[in-house]
Design a protein that fits this description.
Length: about 325
């Protein structure tokens, strides 16, 4: 995780006056939106929270071949852990595109369904993130576990959608949080998530679609502008034509579209997920792995190109340079 404050830059639309990163430097790393080089092993788990009950989840890990309980791939270990969550009325199995993508890039992921997915309490999701990290550590310690010994127990990220996004913010800003970097996709809002946002001390990225009819950009932007401190790396981006349901798996997004949930999309769901992957993967690679070449995708020339091309309708960020 990046630490230390050298100087702070606040950006609304155009940046890159100093420290430019050129596109030819990107060839050193995988494009963040492309699949990574790892196969995906997976297995089902559950864990309990005394307040809310039992969370059901899937752990995915870099493996030698794709499949259930397949042998782990030690070649890039230890791997950072990332906890993933869907939103209200959603389950882990209809947002699996996120943990699958991150696992191919060398992350151990756990994607959970809360005990009561119809309960409008963001703390239920926040506790899922906190307990999810504990569960990853526990499975890493078991000699017979598929992820035994391959988890970086000091490095964790969180990413959530809607109520899961608010829960991710709440967990990130919790006292003694061990989350090192977060991404909130179209996060909902609650008193607890608003309060927690003010206490965040690690890098956080917020994404939203500018066609979102469920959690509009106007509702999301205050997290960035008014709540999350300016003393850390933070980013807000609006995907042109994206909506709320475009952040879930294709089948479920198309079903939700068919029954009239959300405002109409302005781009294909696959394209929205591609753009989203580009930014959250680069965010984690830069902040959890310290891979400087991903700077350009979130703060540099590549990000600016997306804004200029209209792929993003808004882009704001603070940068803390570390030298």
């Amino acid at each position: 995780m990046k630490k230390g404050i050298i100087f702070l830059i606040s950006i609304t639309t155009i940046l890159l006056v100093a420290f430019p990163i050129h596109a030819d430097e990107v060839n050193k790393v995988l494009k963040p939106e492309d699949p990574g080089s790892f196969h995906i092993g997976y297995y089902k788990v559950s864990y309990n929270d005394p307040t809310y009950g039992r969370y059901h989840a899937t752990i995915r890990y870099p493996a030698k071949c794709d499949g259930f309980f397949t042998p782990k791939d030690n070649s890039g270990a230890p791997y950072p852990g990332v906890v993933v969550a869907n939103g209200f009325a959603g389950s882990e199995w209809n947002i699996k595109w996120i943990p699958k993508h991150l696992t191919t890039h060398g992350y151990v992921t756990i994607c959970f369904t809360p005990p009561d997915k119809l309960k409008g309490d963001t703390t239920q999701w926040a506790n899922g993130f906190i307990k999810g990290i504990e569960n990853l550590k526990y499975h890493n310690s078991l000699w017979f576990s598929p992820i035994s010994g391959i988890l970086d127990i000091e490095t964790f990220g969180g990413i959530g959608l809607s109520m899961g996004g608010a829960g991710c913010i709440e967990a990130t800003g919790a006292v003694n949080s061990v989350i090192d970097a977060s991404v909130a996709l179209a996060p909902a809002s609650s008193n607890s998530s608003v309060d927690a946002a003010k206490n965040i001390t690690v890098p956080i990225q917020i994404q939203v679609g500018n066609n979102d009819g469920m959690v509009s950009p106007e509702r999301v932007l205050p997290y960035y502008s008014n709540l999350i401190p300016y003393t850390l790396n933070k980013e807000y981006l609006s995907i042109t034509g994206g909506n709320h349901i475009g952040f879930v798996d294709d089948f479920f997004a198309k079903f939700a579209e068919l029954i009239g949930i959300d405002d109409p999309k302005g781009i294909e769901f696959e394209e929205q997920r591609r753009i989203s992957k580009r930014y959250f993967t680069a965010w984690f690679e830069y902040h959890l792995r310290d891979i400087d070449e991903y700077f350009t995708y979130i703060f540099g020339e590549e990000a600016q190109n997306d804004l200029d091309a209209g792929i993003l309708s808004d882009l704001k960020y603070n940068i803390i340079y570390n030298q």
